[in-house]
Amino acid sequence: MILIKFGGSIITNKEKPLSPRKKSIDNLSKSLKKIKEPIIIVHGGGSYGHYWSVKYDMHTKEKKYNPRGVAIVKNSMIELNKMILDSLLYFKLNPYCLPPTDFMSGIKPITKKIKEIEKIAKSGLIPVTYGDALWYGQKKTFILSGDKIMTHLAKILKPRLCIFALNEDGLYSDLKSKKLIYELQGELPSISENKMDVTGGMTRKVEEASKISKMGINVFFVNGNKPDRIVKAVKNRKFEGTLFRSK
Ligand code: IP8
Questions:
Q1: Residues lining ligand 1, CB < 6 A?
Q2: Confidence band (pLDDT; 50, 70, 90) for 119?
Q3: Can you tell me the mean pLDDT for 90-111?
Q4: Fewer CB within 10 Å, N side or C side of the chain?
Q5: Which atom of ligand 1 is least distant from the CA of 198?
Q6: pTM of the entire structure?
Q7: C-alpha distances in angstroms, 166 versus 58, 219, 220, 241?
């Protein structure tokens, strides 16, 4: 089984509020058609969830956020999720929409529910979940990042591989020269980033990827604009990207 995260910057244009990148979404769907293994998809918020989270000053820390903001963030994620589902359906794949409320209780993943996701994936359906605004308790809510969902799922399901599809070739050792880091094991590179979003951008992704690799699972960062690289990574072929080698 394989876990794939569609980064928000690949499925939306992060520079422009509420703008999907429909062509990229379709290209990703098309490439998944070539994978003959059970897959679970997680997607980010991009210029949908992040746009509204910023507007309503909502973050990953649980707090009493404006209920209007919570409602709007959730609605925007459903809107974006619908586009992913439509695209997968169009390319003759069978997505099974799973809002994170289905398998999260506050900040804790529900193991029994997550184990069910594996069964769904192995039945010919493709579970699709996403980062979202979630209920915490005592009138508090928080933003759950799709990257964090990857870690929760990986820990319980132990997939063969985790892939993060990004809007970059992978992790660069230097932002200016865009020199690609091909492989990492254990050590965490220091991240310099231009853009941060409410869930922590590339820094968060690297943190989660490194946690997952320490569970004994290989993690790939690949350019989602070149979905063939995803297929190559899955088929153990040589590909461009960054590998967080399992420990
Ligand atoms: O883009 C965050 O998910 P991420 C989703 O995976 C929201 O960090 C609602 C901002």
A1: 8, 44-45, 49-50, 53, 73, 77, 131-133, 143, 145-147, 198-199
A2: very high
A3: 97
A4: C
A5: 10
A6: 0.95
A7: 23, 13, 10, 10
